[in-house]
Amino acid sequence: MNKIILILISFVILTSCGDKAIKNNVPDKTKNLPWNRITIRLHRQAIFIYKGDSAQYNTWNYKDSVASGSVYKNPVDYKVTKFFLSKSEQDSLYFYCYDIITKPVFVDSTVSCFHCSEIQVCIRNDKSSLCFGYTSVPGWQTMSPSFKNIYRLLKAKTDFNAAD
To answer: Top-level CATH class of 37-157?
Structure first.
């Protein structure tokens, strides 16, 4: 008798909670999306998209510096460019980034030995971050449709150079 009660309780717990937990992790396109900042970082570029109408594209170069006998890279020629994204463009960018983070494309190291860039994509809200990084990207046009769409959207708005 105890085994039957235990099986029934387990069945109720598994069927009532499991599906809701999975559904809550997938963003609903009809609801207010749970982010306040999207960050895309490359080797010498960073793009910050803030929920609303604010976005900026930062670029810089590196100069080797020597201090106390150690060589390190010092960022120089820092440039900040502000640009505008509509709400639909921001929502699209969110879904492209979400797709890249939650469905990563693992790159074959033999294909990417002459990499175009190192990349980190993050979606943030006030309490958490969801990020994924690639250390070697063979090309934005070949990675996935989401990479291609991000590249097109950002290239239309900025001097974004995915090969950098």
So the answer is: alpha beta
